Fold:
Amino acid sequence: MLRPAVQVSGIRKTYGRTVAVNDVSFDVRPGEIFGLIGPNGAGKTTTMECVEGLRTPDRGAISVLGLDPRRDAYSLQKRIGVQLQEAQLQKRIKVWEAVALWASLYQKPGNGDRLIEQLGLSDKRNAWFMTLSGGQKQRLFIALALINDPELVFLDELTTGLDPQARRAIWDLVRGIRQRGKTVLLTTHLMEEAERLCDRVAIIDHGRIVDVGTPAELVRRHCPEHTVVVETDDEAAAARFRDIPQVDSVTSEGFRVTIRGRGDDLVTQVIQRLAEHRMRVVDFRTEAPTLEDVFLRLTGHAIRE
Amino acid sequence: MLRGLWRLTWLEIKIFVREPLGVIGTIFIPVLIFVVLGRVIGPRARAGIPDAPRFLSADLAIFVSVLIAASAVLSLVAIVAIYREGGILKRLRATPLRPHTILAAQVMVKLLSTAVTLALMILAGRRYYPVDADVPIVSFTLALLLSTLSIVSIGFVIASVVPTARFAQPIGTLIIYPMMAFSGLFVPIESLPPTAQTIARMLPFTPAVSLLRGIWHGEGWYRHAGDAAALALMFVIFTAVSSKVFRWE
Structure:
């Protein structure tokens, strides 16, 4: 197997008495989008900034592209691209000027004009930073993070504060980064973002990693239950579903019957019963648990409180 | 090691010019005051108030230079504080830019705006202020450059640590103005009590005032080698300290 792009083992970081990050370990594989997910204040940004070399952990070891992010900061900077949470630029710097400045800082910069175009900023080339919308600013920051054609890109809460449309556009851009063979390490407190974008995620809460895996794996591991909701006028429906072996509970409310159970087989079983008894079905839907549910289950609290 | 310096400097100049209030405040207001004062005092000076011509022809230049250098320090500190507070420094940190490149670019902008202000003052004030023709302009410019750099390097240290823009102004003022008061610009150092004299000689404005005054009056560099060396040394020390203590956020 390829060497991990990022290897974090047992890092700890405290600010005064607050333990921001406690014994965090994870690996990021080359070519994947890896997400650190958790609520605000969970330690995601601190972890990320340790990996970027912007902070020194009190304990533990980090290896990024085989280098030490603090000791080899200068040689690493050429190979990574960084987008920081809540960063700003000079109010009156123009889009193309920022891109050109960044390009001038690297020995082998990519094509700035092409990046501006790819990120949909062509008609904002000459606009001052202060006049850009939130989404445009984020796209500019992504452009700056990509200017040196990095092998590894860090994206910290990159869609926070954006409307759903801008968010989707940014997701496509991030998938584009992966398509070009880059590795992406991102943080987000949006479970939907993690689910749609990340190949693997680490759930982090109160400075600790709770679990790591693909979104689907985590859901299967921690929330194996499925819910099937059937609307039918068959009065015996609830009783008929109850004797499916995988079923945990059946509740009915008027015409609506909610069947909860576990295992991949549950839905098939429900459909079989419907067919066997020739029940008339007005509506049928399944509800699969999401990362949000996994988070709630693992941490005992919702991601947004 | 100063990768990006020229582009950053050029950018900062453009950004500076894009803010009309800043340009008016730093360049045009001082020139305007200078000219207005010239119109008011000029005629009286020519009418022969005993001390006026000497002040106008000599100390005024020193006075203006030091004031402008001091205001350059304050605005340097303010800009860096704004950059720190706004997360601009943080963003720059994740690039190959080094702190001294960021400071150096700001200093170049300040030097340039100082030069423009002084040039405008000389052009606009020529009619009102009698200046001796035999002032060694090249030497004085060099002395001014050295003094300004040294004074601005105090700003490096303050700018490196001051956390927010709101703090920047009062802290800068608290440090700069007392130094100026003891620099010999207003009161001759010799007339201060001995302890104050010793302190005054260790402050960066003192050799600056002494060097500028001496060069303006046509005294050679060799007589002010001590001042020049002190200024250069301070520049080196303050710059080194600032890159040690520089805070990105």
